[in-house]
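Honest question from a wet-lab person: if I give you the sequences of every part of a complex, can you actually get the arrangement of the whole thing, not just the pieces? Trying it with mine:
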Amino acid sequence: MSDTKQRLLDGAIAAIREHGIAGVSARTIAAAAGVNQALVFYHYGTVDDLLTAACQAGTAERVAHWSTRLAEVRSLRELLDVGRALHEQEQELGNVSFLAQMLAGAQSDERLAAPTGAALQLWVDEIESVLRRLLAGSPFAEIADVAGLARAVSAAFIGLELYGGVDRDGMERAMSALDQLAVLIEIVDDLGPIARRALQGKITRATRRS
Amino acid sequence: MSDTKQRLLDGAIAAIREHGIAGVSARTIAAAAGVNQALVFYHYGTVDDLLTAACQAGTAERVAHWSTRLAEVRSLRELLDVGRALHEQEQELGNVSFLAQMLAGAQSDERLAAPTGAALQLWVDEIESVLRRLLAGSPFAEIADVAGLARAVSAAFIGLELYGGVDRDGMERAMSALDQLAVLIEIVDDLGPIARRALQGKITRATRRS
DNA sequence: GTCTATAGCTGGATAGAC
DNA sequence: GTCTATCCAGCTATAGAC
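Yes, you can. This is the full assembly:
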Protein backbone atom coordinates (compact mmCIF):
# COMPACT_ATOMS: atom_id res chain seq x y z
CA MET A 1 0.00 0.00 0.00
CA SER A 2 1.64 3.20 -1.19
CA ASP A 3 1.75 6.26 0.99
CA THR A 4 -0.62 8.17 -1.25
CA LYS A 5 -3.24 5.43 -1.28
CA GLN A 6 -3.20 5.33 2.53
CA ARG A 7 -3.40 9.11 2.76
CA LEU A 8 -6.46 9.00 0.53
CA LEU A 9 -8.12 6.41 2.76
CA ASP A 10 -7.49 8.56 5.83
CA GLY A 11 -8.54 11.65 3.90
CA ALA A 12 -11.83 10.03 2.93
CA ILE A 13 -12.69 9.38 6.57
CA ALA A 14 -11.60 12.87 7.60
CA ALA A 15 -13.58 14.50 4.79
CA ILE A 16 -16.77 12.60 5.58
CA ARG A 17 -16.34 13.40 9.22
CA GLU A 18 -15.99 17.11 8.47
CA HIS A 19 -18.43 17.57 5.61
CA GLY A 20 -20.76 14.59 5.89
CA ILE A 21 -21.91 12.34 3.07
CA ALA A 22 -23.63 15.35 1.49
CA GLY A 23 -20.42 17.39 1.30
CA VAL A 24 -17.80 14.77 0.53
CA SER A 25 -16.12 15.00 -2.87
CA ALA A 26 -12.88 14.16 -4.61
CA ARG A 27 -11.75 17.70 -3.89
CA THR A 28 -12.57 17.71 -0.17
CA ILE A 29 -10.98 14.28 0.23
CA ALA A 30 -7.85 15.33 -1.63
CA ALA A 31 -7.60 18.48 0.48
CA ALA A 32 -7.90 16.47 3.69
CA ALA A 33 -5.31 13.98 2.42
CA GLY A 34 -2.97 16.74 1.24
CA VAL A 35 -2.70 15.33 -2.27
CA ASN A 36 -3.82 16.28 -5.74
CA GLN A 37 -7.47 15.79 -6.64
CA ALA A 38 -6.76 13.77 -9.78
CA LEU A 39 -5.07 11.07 -7.67
CA VAL A 40 -8.43 10.00 -6.29
CA PHE A 41 -9.35 8.77 -9.77
CA TYR A 42 -5.90 7.43 -10.60
CA HIS A 43 -5.79 5.23 -7.50
CA TYR A 44 -9.43 4.36 -6.92
CA GLY A 45 -11.31 5.06 -10.15
CA THR A 46 -14.32 6.80 -8.61
CA VAL A 47 -15.16 8.58 -5.37
CA ASP A 48 -17.59 5.80 -4.43
CA ASP A 49 -14.88 3.20 -4.85
CA LEU A 50 -12.58 5.16 -2.58
CA LEU A 51 -15.33 5.47 0.04
CA THR A 52 -15.91 1.73 -0.27
CA ALA A 53 -12.23 0.97 0.31
CA ALA A 54 -12.04 3.40 3.24
CA CYS A 55 -15.13 1.82 4.78
CA GLN A 56 -13.69 -1.66 4.52
CA ALA A 57 -10.13 -0.90 5.64
CA GLY A 58 -11.07 1.63 8.30
CA THR A 59 -13.67 -0.54 9.98
CA ALA A 60 -11.53 -3.68 9.84
CA GLU A 61 -8.74 -1.82 11.58
CA ARG A 62 -10.95 -0.45 14.35
CA VAL A 63 -12.69 -3.78 14.94
CA ALA A 64 -9.33 -5.54 15.18
CA HIS A 65 -8.15 -2.87 17.61
CA TRP A 66 -11.09 -3.43 19.97
CA SER A 67 -11.31 -7.17 19.45
CA THR A 68 -8.51 -7.93 21.89
CA ARG A 69 -9.99 -5.76 24.61
CA LEU A 70 -13.48 -7.15 24.08
CA ALA A 71 -12.04 -10.67 24.37
CA GLU A 72 -11.00 -9.87 27.94
CA VAL A 73 -14.46 -8.78 29.06
CA ARG A 74 -15.87 -11.11 31.68
CA SER A 75 -19.26 -9.62 32.60
CA LEU A 76 -22.08 -7.56 31.14
CA ARG A 77 -21.11 -4.61 33.30
CA GLU A 78 -17.56 -4.75 32.05
CA LEU A 79 -18.99 -4.88 28.55
CA LEU A 80 -21.00 -1.74 29.24
CA ASP A 81 -17.85 0.03 30.43
CA VAL A 82 -15.90 -1.06 27.36
CA GLY A 83 -18.85 -0.03 25.21
CA ARG A 84 -18.80 3.45 26.64
CA ALA A 85 -15.05 3.75 26.18
CA LEU A 86 -15.39 2.43 22.65
CA HIS A 87 -18.07 4.96 21.86
CA GLU A 88 -16.03 7.84 23.24
CA GLN A 89 -12.79 6.92 21.52
CA GLU A 90 -14.32 6.03 18.18
CA GLN A 91 -16.24 9.27 18.29
CA GLU A 92 -12.95 11.13 18.52
CA LEU A 93 -11.43 9.13 15.70
CA GLY A 94 -14.63 9.57 13.74
CA ASN A 95 -15.28 5.97 12.79
CA VAL A 96 -18.79 5.71 14.20
CA SER A 97 -19.64 9.01 12.58
CA PHE A 98 -18.11 7.81 9.33
CA LEU A 99 -20.21 4.65 9.36
CA ALA A 100 -23.33 6.64 10.17
CA GLN A 101 -22.75 8.91 7.20
CA MET A 102 -22.02 5.96 4.91
CA LEU A 103 -25.21 4.32 6.12
CA ALA A 104 -27.18 7.46 5.36
CA GLY A 105 -25.69 7.57 1.89
CA ALA A 106 -26.27 3.86 1.36
CA GLN A 107 -30.04 4.36 1.67
CA SER A 108 -30.21 5.88 -1.79
CA ASP A 109 -26.87 4.97 -3.38
CA GLU A 110 -26.92 1.24 -3.97
CA ARG A 111 -23.22 1.15 -4.74
CA LEU A 112 -22.57 2.11 -1.12
CA ALA A 113 -25.11 -0.31 0.35
CA ALA A 114 -23.10 -3.52 0.05
CA PRO A 115 -19.76 -2.24 1.38
CA THR A 116 -21.44 -0.35 4.21
CA GLY A 117 -23.46 -3.39 5.17
CA ALA A 118 -20.34 -5.54 5.12
CA ALA A 119 -18.44 -3.08 7.31
CA LEU A 120 -21.26 -2.88 9.82
CA GLN A 121 -21.37 -6.66 9.83
CA LEU A 122 -17.80 -6.70 11.14
CA TRP A 123 -18.99 -4.87 14.24
CA VAL A 124 -22.12 -7.03 14.51
CA ASP A 125 -20.06 -10.23 14.39
CA GLU A 126 -17.67 -8.95 17.02
CA ILE A 127 -20.45 -7.87 19.36
CA GLU A 128 -22.34 -11.09 18.78
CA SER A 129 -19.36 -13.25 19.70
CA VAL A 130 -18.76 -11.30 22.91
CA LEU A 131 -22.42 -11.49 23.90
CA ARG A 132 -22.56 -15.20 23.10
CA ARG A 133 -19.50 -15.87 25.24
CA LEU A 134 -20.78 -13.78 28.16
CA LEU A 135 -24.25 -15.29 28.06
CA ALA A 136 -23.02 -18.87 27.69
CA GLY A 137 -24.53 -20.84 30.51
CA SER A 138 -26.74 -17.93 31.47
CA PRO A 139 -30.48 -18.49 31.41
CA PHE A 140 -30.78 -15.36 29.32
CA ALA A 141 -29.14 -17.15 26.40
CA GLU A 142 -32.05 -19.60 26.31
CA ILE A 143 -34.50 -16.74 26.11
CA ALA A 144 -32.79 -14.17 23.94
CA ASP A 145 -31.91 -14.09 20.28
CA VAL A 146 -28.27 -13.09 20.74
CA ALA A 147 -27.73 -12.44 17.04
CA GLY A 148 -30.71 -10.08 17.00
CA LEU A 149 -29.46 -8.39 20.15
CA ALA A 150 -26.05 -7.78 18.56
CA ARG A 151 -27.73 -6.16 15.58
CA ALA A 152 -29.91 -4.02 17.83
CA VAL A 153 -26.86 -2.84 19.77
CA SER A 154 -25.03 -1.94 16.57
CA ALA A 155 -28.02 -0.06 15.15
CA ALA A 156 -28.53 1.74 18.45
CA PHE A 157 -24.88 2.88 18.43
CA ILE A 158 -25.44 4.47 15.03
CA GLY A 159 -28.67 6.11 16.12
CA LEU A 160 -27.15 7.46 19.33
CA GLU A 161 -24.18 8.85 17.42
CA LEU A 162 -26.47 10.79 15.07
CA TYR A 163 -28.76 11.88 17.90
CA GLY A 164 -25.73 13.17 19.81
CA GLY A 165 -24.99 15.49 16.91
CA VAL A 166 -28.12 17.54 17.60
CA ASP A 167 -28.53 16.96 21.34
CA ARG A 168 -25.43 15.90 23.22
CA ASP A 169 -27.03 16.00 26.67
CA GLY A 170 -29.95 13.97 25.43
CA MET A 171 -27.59 11.33 24.09
CA GLU A 172 -25.81 11.09 27.44
CA ARG A 173 -29.12 10.60 29.22
CA ALA A 174 -30.13 7.97 26.68
CA MET A 175 -26.91 6.03 27.24
CA SER A 176 -27.35 6.13 30.99
CA ALA A 177 -30.90 4.85 30.60
CA LEU A 178 -29.62 1.98 28.47
CA ASP A 179 -27.08 1.20 31.17
CA GLN A 180 -29.92 0.85 33.65
CA LEU A 181 -31.86 -1.32 31.25
CA ALA A 182 -28.90 -3.59 30.57
CA VAL A 183 -28.56 -4.32 34.25
CA LEU A 184 -32.00 -5.86 34.07
CA ILE A 185 -30.49 -8.68 32.08
CA GLU A 186 -28.30 -9.54 35.00
CA ILE A 187 -31.20 -10.04 37.36
CA VAL A 188 -32.38 -12.90 35.21
CA ASP A 189 -29.30 -14.73 36.39
CA ASP A 190 -30.49 -14.31 39.97
CA LEU A 191 -33.86 -15.86 39.32
CA GLY A 192 -34.59 -19.36 40.48
CA PRO A 193 -35.52 -22.04 37.92
CA ILE A 194 -39.27 -21.65 38.45
CA ALA A 195 -39.34 -17.88 38.05
CA ARG A 196 -36.99 -18.23 35.12
CA ARG A 197 -39.29 -20.65 33.34
CA ALA A 198 -42.26 -18.37 33.97
CA LEU A 199 -40.34 -15.45 32.47
CA GLN A 200 -39.34 -17.49 29.47
CA GLY A 201 -42.95 -18.42 28.77
CA LYS A 202 -43.98 -14.82 29.18
CA ILE A 203 -41.45 -13.62 26.64
CA THR A 204 -42.33 -16.38 24.20
CA ARG A 205 -46.00 -15.48 24.35
CA ALA A 206 -45.34 -11.75 24.06
CA THR A 207 -43.04 -11.98 21.06
CA ARG A 208 -45.10 -14.59 19.23
CA ARG A 209 -48.04 -12.23 19.26
CA SER A 210 -46.34 -9.34 17.48
CA MET B 1 -50.94 27.77 2.98
CA SER B 2 -51.00 27.93 -0.82
CA ASP B 3 -51.09 24.76 -2.87
CA THR B 4 -47.60 25.31 -4.21
CA LYS B 5 -46.05 25.80 -0.78
CA GLN B 6 -47.62 22.56 0.41
CA ARG B 7 -46.49 20.72 -2.72
CA LEU B 8 -42.96 21.90 -2.06
CA LEU B 9 -43.09 20.63 1.52
CA ASP B 10 -44.27 17.22 0.30
CA GLY B 11 -41.74 17.34 -2.52
CA ALA B 12 -38.91 17.99 -0.08
CA ILE B 13 -39.77 14.86 1.88
CA ALA B 14 -40.17 12.81 -1.29
CA ALA B 15 -36.88 14.05 -2.73
CA ILE B 16 -34.91 13.30 0.43
CA ARG B 17 -36.53 9.93 0.61
CA GLU B 18 -35.50 9.14 -2.96
CA HIS B 19 -32.10 10.80 -3.22
CA GLY B 20 -30.99 11.16 0.39
CA ILE B 21 -29.49 14.25 1.99
CA ALA B 22 -26.54 13.93 -0.39
CA GLY B 23 -28.71 14.13 -3.51
CA VAL B 24 -31.40 16.58 -2.49
CA SER B 25 -31.48 19.90 -4.34
CA ALA B 26 -33.89 22.59 -5.41
CA ARG B 27 -34.18 20.76 -8.73
CA THR B 28 -34.93 17.30 -7.34
CA ILE B 29 -37.44 18.80 -4.89
CA ALA B 30 -39.16 20.81 -7.60
CA ALA B 31 -39.32 17.72 -9.83
CA ALA B 32 -40.88 15.68 -7.02
CA ALA B 33 -43.33 18.49 -6.29
CA GLY B 34 -44.15 18.99 -9.96
CA VAL B 35 -43.39 22.69 -9.87
CA ASN B 36 -40.77 25.03 -11.27
CA GLN B 37 -37.38 25.07 -9.64
CA ALA B 38 -37.33 28.83 -9.08
CA LEU B 39 -40.37 28.56 -6.82
CA VAL B 40 -38.26 26.94 -4.12
CA PHE B 41 -36.42 30.23 -3.72
CA TYR B 42 -39.50 32.41 -4.18
CA HIS B 43 -41.42 30.65 -1.41
CA TYR B 44 -38.69 29.56 0.98
CA GLY B 45 -35.58 31.58 0.18
CA THR B 46 -33.06 28.73 0.35
CA VAL B 47 -33.12 24.94 0.10
CA ASP B 48 -32.11 24.66 3.76
CA ASP B 49 -35.04 26.82 4.80
CA LEU B 50 -37.41 24.62 2.83
CA LEU B 51 -35.97 21.50 4.44
CA THR B 52 -36.35 23.16 7.82
CA ALA B 53 -40.01 23.94 7.16
CA ALA B 54 -40.66 20.43 5.84
CA CYS B 55 -38.99 18.94 8.89
CA GLN B 56 -41.11 20.99 11.26
CA ALA B 57 -44.46 20.66 9.49
CA GLY B 58 -44.00 17.03 8.44
CA THR B 59 -42.99 15.78 11.85
CA ALA B 60 -45.65 17.79 13.69
CA GLU B 61 -48.29 16.26 11.44
CA ARG B 62 -47.09 12.68 11.95
CA VAL B 63 -46.72 13.08 15.71
CA ALA B 64 -50.23 14.51 15.96
CA HIS B 65 -51.50 11.60 13.88
CA TRP B 66 -50.03 9.02 16.23
CA SER B 67 -50.64 10.97 19.41
CA THR B 68 -54.28 9.92 19.66
CA ARG B 69 -53.50 6.25 19.14
CA LEU B 70 -50.61 6.37 21.61
CA ALA B 71 -52.93 7.95 24.16
CA GLU B 72 -55.07 4.82 24.08
CA VAL B 73 -52.20 2.46 24.86
CA ARG B 74 -52.66 0.79 28.23
CA SER B 75 -49.67 -1.54 28.57
CA LEU B 76 -46.06 -1.90 27.50
CA ARG B 77 -46.97 -4.76 25.19
CA GLU B 78 -49.60 -2.65 23.51
CA LEU B 79 -46.98 0.06 23.17
CA LEU B 80 -44.64 -2.40 21.45
CA ASP B 81 -47.39 -3.32 19.00
CA VAL B 82 -48.16 0.32 18.25
CA GLY B 83 -44.43 0.96 17.93
CA ARG B 84 -44.11 -1.72 15.29
CA ALA B 85 -47.12 -0.43 13.39
CA LEU B 86 -45.76 3.10 13.64
CA HIS B 87 -42.41 2.01 12.29
CA GLU B 88 -43.95 0.15 9.37
CA GLN B 89 -46.36 2.90 8.37
CA GLU B 90 -43.92 5.77 8.79
CA GLN B 91 -41.39 3.79 6.79
CA GLU B 92 -43.85 3.72 3.91
CA LEU B 93 -44.61 7.41 4.22
CA GLY B 94 -40.91 8.08 4.55
CA ASN B 95 -40.93 10.24 7.66
CA VAL B 96 -38.51 8.17 9.71
CA SER B 97 -36.21 7.96 6.73
CA PHE B 98 -36.55 11.71 6.20
CA LEU B 99 -35.60 12.42 9.81
CA ALA B 100 -32.65 10.05 9.56
CA GLN B 101 -31.33 11.85 6.50
CA MET B 102 -31.86 15.25 8.09
CA LEU B 103 -30.01 14.02 11.15
CA ALA B 104 -27.12 12.84 9.01
CA GLY B 105 -27.00 16.22 7.29
CA ALA B 106 -27.29 18.07 10.59
CA GLN B 107 -23.97 16.58 11.77
CA SER B 108 -22.04 18.91 9.51
CA ASP B 109 -24.59 21.56 8.49
CA GLU B 110 -25.29 23.60 11.58
CA ARG B 111 -28.26 25.31 9.94
CA LEU B 112 -30.02 21.94 9.91
CA ALA B 113 -29.04 20.99 13.46
CA ALA B 114 -31.57 23.13 15.35
CA PRO B 115 -34.67 22.33 13.27
CA THR B 116 -33.82 18.64 13.14
CA GLY B 117 -33.26 18.52 16.87
CA ALA B 118 -36.55 20.30 17.46
CA ALA B 119 -38.42 17.89 15.20
CA LEU B 120 -36.91 14.87 16.90
CA GLN B 121 -37.83 16.40 20.23
CA LEU B 122 -41.49 16.25 19.20
CA TRP B 123 -41.20 12.46 18.99
CA VAL B 124 -39.16 12.30 22.20
CA ASP B 125 -41.77 14.28 24.12
CA GLU B 126 -44.58 12.12 22.80
CA ILE B 127 -42.79 8.87 23.67
CA GLU B 128 -41.79 10.22 27.06
CA SER B 129 -45.35 11.13 27.98
CA VAL B 130 -46.63 7.70 26.99
CA LEU B 131 -43.88 5.93 28.92
CA ARG B 132 -44.46 8.11 31.95
CA ARG B 133 -48.17 7.38 31.92
CA LEU B 134 -47.66 3.63 31.49
CA LEU B 135 -45.00 3.43 34.17
CA ALA B 136 -46.90 5.57 36.67
CA GLY B 137 -47.23 3.56 39.83
CA SER B 138 -44.89 0.90 38.49
CA PRO B 139 -41.73 0.18 40.45
CA PHE B 140 -39.79 0.58 37.24
CA ALA B 141 -40.52 4.31 37.25
CA GLU B 142 -38.60 4.63 40.52
CA ILE B 143 -35.61 2.93 38.98
CA ALA B 144 -35.53 4.20 35.43
CA ASP B 145 -34.83 7.60 33.93
CA VAL B 146 -37.93 7.76 31.75
CA ALA B 147 -36.73 10.83 29.89
CA GLY B 148 -33.49 9.08 29.02
CA LEU B 149 -35.37 5.99 27.97
CA ALA B 150 -37.56 8.02 25.61
CA ARG B 151 -34.44 9.49 24.01
CA ALA B 152 -32.87 6.07 23.67
CA VAL B 153 -36.00 4.72 22.00
CA SER B 154 -36.06 7.61 19.55
CA ALA B 155 -32.39 7.25 18.69
CA ALA B 156 -32.77 3.50 18.30
CA PHE B 157 -35.64 4.03 15.85
CA ILE B 158 -33.35 6.17 13.70
CA GLY B 159 -30.53 3.67 13.88
CA LEU B 160 -32.78 0.74 13.03
CA GLU B 161 -34.22 2.61 10.09
CA LEU B 162 -30.77 3.21 8.64
CA TYR B 163 -29.60 -0.30 9.43
CA GLY B 164 -32.67 -1.68 7.66
CA GLY B 165 -31.53 0.07 4.50
CA VAL B 166 -28.50 -2.22 4.19
CA ASP B 167 -29.82 -5.34 5.94
CA ARG B 168 -33.57 -5.70 6.16
CA ASP B 169 -33.53 -9.17 7.70
CA GLY B 170 -31.01 -8.03 10.29
CA MET B 171 -33.27 -5.15 11.25
CA GLU B 172 -36.24 -7.47 11.71
CA ARG B 173 -34.19 -9.69 13.99
CA ALA B 174 -33.00 -6.67 15.94
CA MET B 175 -36.55 -5.48 16.49
CA SER B 176 -37.65 -8.89 17.68
CA ALA B 177 -34.74 -8.98 20.10
CA LEU B 178 -35.78 -5.59 21.46
CA ASP B 179 -39.29 -6.93 21.93
CA GLN B 180 -37.88 -9.68 24.08
CA LEU B 181 -35.80 -7.20 26.03
CA ALA B 182 -38.73 -4.87 26.63
CA VAL B 183 -40.70 -7.67 28.23
CA LEU B 184 -38.03 -7.75 30.91
CA ILE B 185 -39.36 -4.44 32.17
CA GLU B 186 -42.69 -6.07 32.90
CA ILE B 187 -41.19 -8.66 35.20
CA VAL B 188 -40.08 -5.92 37.54
CA ASP B 189 -43.75 -5.36 38.26
CA ASP B 190 -43.98 -8.95 39.45
CA LEU B 191 -41.17 -8.57 41.94
CA GLY B 192 -41.93 -8.26 45.60
CA PRO B 193 -40.77 -5.19 47.54
CA ILE B 194 -37.59 -6.82 48.84
CA ALA B 195 -36.39 -8.10 45.49
CA ARG B 196 -37.34 -4.77 43.97
CA ARG B 197 -35.24 -2.83 46.46
CA ALA B 198 -32.30 -5.16 45.86
CA LEU B 199 -32.60 -4.57 42.13
CA GLN B 200 -32.79 -0.84 42.58
CA GLY B 201 -29.60 -0.84 44.62
CA LYS B 202 -27.93 -3.01 42.03
CA ILE B 203 -28.79 -0.62 39.22
CA THR B 204 -27.73 2.41 41.21
CA ARG B 205 -24.34 0.88 41.97
CA ALA B 206 -23.84 -0.28 38.39
CA THR B 207 -24.68 3.02 36.77
CA ARG B 208 -22.82 5.17 39.27
CA ARG B 209 -19.65 3.33 38.44
CA SER B 210 -19.68 4.14 34.72
C1' DG C 1 -47.19 33.70 -8.58
C1' DT C 2 -45.04 31.41 -12.18
C1' DC C 3 -42.08 30.98 -16.01
C1' DT C 4 -37.48 31.26 -18.91
C1' DA C 5 -32.89 32.31 -19.05
C1' DT C 6 -28.69 32.77 -17.25
C1' DA C 7 -24.67 34.08 -14.20
C1' DG C 8 -21.43 32.02 -11.30
C1' DC C 9 -19.83 28.13 -8.92
C1' DT C 10 -18.58 23.34 -7.65
C1' DG C 11 -18.27 18.60 -8.81
C1' DG C 12 -16.71 14.10 -11.48
C1' DA C 13 -13.76 12.71 -14.63
C1' DT C 14 -10.15 12.80 -18.30
C1' DA C 15 -6.06 14.26 -21.35
C1' DG C 16 -1.64 15.08 -21.57
C1' DA C 17 2.80 17.27 -19.78
C1' DC C 18 6.37 15.97 -16.70
C1' DG D 1 2.84 8.58 -10.04
C1' DT D 2 1.84 13.24 -9.94
C1' DC D 3 0.61 17.61 -11.78
C1' DT D 4 -2.07 21.28 -14.63
C1' DA D 5 -5.70 22.28 -17.43
C1' DT D 6 -10.01 21.51 -18.92
C1' DC D 7 -14.76 19.59 -20.36
C1' DC D 8 -19.26 19.11 -19.03
C1' DA D 9 -23.01 18.33 -15.84
C1' DG D 10 -25.58 19.97 -12.12
C1' DC D 11 -26.12 23.26 -8.44
C1' DT D 12 -27.85 27.93 -6.03
C1' DA D 13 -29.70 32.02 -6.78
C1' DT D 14 -31.38 35.95 -9.33
C1' DA D 15 -33.30 38.96 -13.19
C1' DG D 16 -36.87 39.89 -15.76
C1' DA D 17 -40.88 38.55 -18.96
C1' DC D 18 -45.59 37.30 -18.40
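Two things worth pointing out. Residues 2, 4, 35-36, 38-39, 42-43 of chain A lie near DNA strand D (CB under 10 Å from a C1'). Chain A touches chain B through 71 residues (CB under 8 Å).
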